[in-house]
Amino acid sequence: MLSSVQTPRLLRFQSFSLKCLHTHPTTTPPPPHSQILTIRKSLLSREISAVDLAGTFLNRLRNTEPHLKSFLYVSDVVLKEAEEIDRKIAENEELGPLAGVLVGVKDNICTSDMPSTAGSKILENYRPPFDATAVGKMKKCGALVIGKTNMDEFGMGSTTEGSGYQVTANPWDLSRVPGGSSGGSAAAVSARQCMVSLGSDTGGSVRQPASFCGVVGLKPTYGRVSRYGLVAYASSLDVIGCFGSSVADAGIVLHAISGHDKFDATSSKKEVPDFASQFTARDHLDSKPLKGLRVGLIRETIEDGVDPDVISSIRGAASHLEELGCTVTEVSLPSFSLGLPAYYILASSESSSNLSRYDGIRYGKQVFADELNSLYGESRAGGLGSEVPRKRTFLCEVKMRILMGTYALSAGYYDAYYKRAQQVRTLVRESFRAALDENDILISPAAPSAAYKIGEKKNDPLSMYAGDIMTVNVNLAGLPALVLPCGFVDSSSVALPVGVQMISAAFEEEKLLKVGHIFEQTLQGCSFIPPLVADELAC
């Protein structure tokens, strides 16, 4: 049990539930359902056509995009691809498991038929000659790529304000950030501009936006999903993850994109389980469906520096897990606070190497110059960084991290910084291993606060970096993590969603999805549909 006494803990959970009900007082909303399975059933029964379905999402995208700016590019062939699905249905041909599912793809994941710029002007209009393995698998399953979503340049940022093209807004409050760097993918799913989306997670870039936007975000084990076709930021940390409006949809997408790939030497040969087999409808659950499950609440994530309302929501989530039969205890990870500086040293060091290819000759927009060094310097200076007009008193995020990484790898500083950061990484892995030997899963907030105002932290990079403290340790250890909404934090204008992060041992996504699905199916009184589209979806 948690170290606090039983009565206060139950009171916290009651307050948490009432806050959800107060946010949406009209009716008690049903639990989230799988859009993918619902759509498949409707298509096969011919209740709806793929063309009509695609048209509905495209219309919603066009109506909301001027406010959100989630997408950098929208496909012009979606309706034609939907017609092909309708033809297959009419002729009783076999359909893939994702037939008709509209998916948004983060702009650093390669697509052969659309630009892939990684949110950077230096790659403006670049069209890869191939699909990323994850994208290819989605298409093979029948998914329709609706467009490329906005992101912080090369994945370096936590707000999506660092895009070279535009700033994405949060569907819950247009004055706030959606998180980053996969903010476009999270906002698109939250606003139902697409059904699911792909993102990348180097230090929390799927999980933090999922929390800010009130959607499910899944970061798989390093090696579970091929990185082939993902524009590299920090190769030992990067993973492709996914967003959905339900745990079931996230699990179905993960199953589609997982598996060994001969083009990625780091992809695992482990068998991919049928994640959907873990999903049980709420009506078929017994009173204690998670009886015997050991859950560790990471103590360092609910201490000073974390918004008290976020802590309250996470303790409420822990109490809900107890009601489902779990045994919840607080656990300490002694190396937890060391993970953040180690992560930024390692990620910056790897990025300084990976981004050296964008020199105007091998890749990137070239600036005319009379001398080679000038060509390199001017091409990189002009191509890296945002052209979005706003006050800037610091170097752009990409240039700053390249400089940090180059410094950490330089002669005389390698041992003091890079080598020591690798040693800390080993300590982080060992502390997680010890905690997961005693617990089946660990839980924590996905971020220290709910979504903050656009521009609030842009000129305070240290404060923005500190916001990654909840997520970076998971990447250092290469573990899977699932974030799903668990409550709300009241702001001055609107209630903002908060996500709980669940962490398991490597390649145990199946366990995370089972727990997460039961959690969301039994969570009462919360509807995680943003006001921007709530009225339309209620009709």
Automatic annotation (TrEMBL):
Keywords, ordered alphabetically: ATP-binding, Chloroplast, Ligase, Mitochondrion, Nucleotide-binding, Plastid, Protein biosynthesis
Primary localization: mitochondrion
Active site: K106, S181, S205
Domain of life: Eukaryota
GO biological process terms on file: glutaminyl-tRNAGln biosynthesis via transamidation; mitochondrial translation
Listed GO CC annotations: chloroplast stroma; glutamyl-tRNA(Gln) amidotransferase complex; mitochondrion
Pfam families: Amidase
InterPro entries: Amidase (IPR000120), Amidase_CS (IPR020556), Amidase_dom (IPR023631), AS_sf (IPR036928), GatA (IPR004412)
Molecular functions per Gene Ontology: ATP binding; glutaminyl-tRNA synthase (glutamine-hydrolyzing) activity; hydrolase activity, acting on carbon-nitrogen (but not peptide) bonds, in linear amides
Catalytic reaction(s) noted: L-glutamyl-tRNA(Gln) + L-glutamine + ATP + H2O = L-glutaminyl-tRNA(Gln) + L-glutamate + ADP + phosphate + H(+)
HAMAP family membership: GatA
Function: Allows the formation of correctly charged Gln-tRNA(Gln) through the transamidation of misacylated Glu-tRNA(Gln) in chloroplasts and mitochondria. The reaction takes place in the presence of glutamine and ATP through an activated gamma-phospho-Glu-tRNA(Gln).
Quaternary data: Subunit of the heterotrimeric GatCAB amidotransferase (AdT) complex, composed of A, B and C subunits.
PANTHER family, alphabetized: GLUTAMYL-TRNA(GLN) AMIDOTRANSFERASE SUBUNIT A, MITOCHONDRIAL (PTHR11895:SF7), TRANSAMIDASE (PTHR11895)
NCBIfam families for the chain: gatA
Protein name: Glutamyl-tRNA(Gln) amidotransferase subunit A, chloroplastic/mitochondrial
